[in-house]
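Reply to thread "Modeling small-molecule complexes from scratch"

Following up on the discussion above, here's a worked example others can learn from. I took a protein sequence and the SMILES for zinc ion and predicted the complex. Inputs first:
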Amino acid sequence: MKALVIEGPYQAVVKEVPYPKPAAGELTIKVERAGICGTDVHIFKGEFMSSFPIIPGHEFSGVVHEIGENVEGWQVGDRVAVEPTQTCGKCRYCKTQRANQCTNWRAIGVNRNGAMAEFVSVPAQLALKMPDSMDFETGAFVEPMACVVHALNRLQAKAGDRILLFGAGAMGQQLIQSLVKVGASELVVVDISQEKLDMALKYGATKAIESKHLMEEIGPEVRPEGFDIVIDATGILSIIEQAFTFMGPTAKYLQFGVTAQNESIRLDPFELYNKDWTVMGSMAINYSFIPAFEWLKENRVNVKPLLSKVINLDEAVDFFTQPRDAALMKVQIKP
Ligand SMILES: [Zn+2]
Ligand SMILES: [Zn+2]
């Protein structure tokens, strides 16, 4: 079969690889859609916890193609969305509702071959049957949406919270639509792309600011009270460091965007103490795949406008290796 293989940092190729037969307890899925995520770009650059060679692709939907031994309840042709993370169920984190911190954490497309290929084998218990009303495009959004749901569970935003969000890409947009539903009052969004800001306003942001006007619009001189919640969905170090400037008393900060590993920022510990700040992260999915699936099934979040384009595997190599248009949101691969 054909697959996109990252053979080492900055080395992506499309080539023939063996078809992944399902092992006992597994299904082999014919991939219909695989979303490209910022994490895949980090894997491509050798900045994330993958070993090489690896077929990336952890946001995907498809059709059951072959059923391994000891698997019940599935039929060839079933349409599925697949949770990518595999946790052990035995460690102290798995046993205390923190499975995203499992000491044996693995993920399809990170450290086991993923869905940027014609076929992918997956543990059967990670597959979720899609209703006929859910299309494959939406099915491949369940995983990113599950990251958003985990972030919401971490944040515990209160009705009326004033929220500032950096980054209006596909993940930022899913956060915007979700934060409206969990009760944000003000929802100020910052990005470099006017098109992304326009979409943010359309789906519930109360104010959209181009990055270069940030200080004059909401800097401490014009808005000394700051915000109750500040979220980074860019993963860009200079933005993260600056984000703390906008934190009001008792504010919560959420690191949602993924940076390269082993980077650092400066943070004023006096302010952290003096203003009662809470600083938190949100790593991948944590018992949030089914809630995200339910949310998309009921169209609570509209992911359709976030899909910028659908490309094939060969075009995906260019996507990794060439400069990208800043206005692009989600790009999906149809192998
Ligand atoms: Zn992702
Ligand atoms: Zn575990």
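What I'd highlight from this example: The chain has ten helices and 17 strands. The longest helix spans residues 142-155. Questions welcome below.
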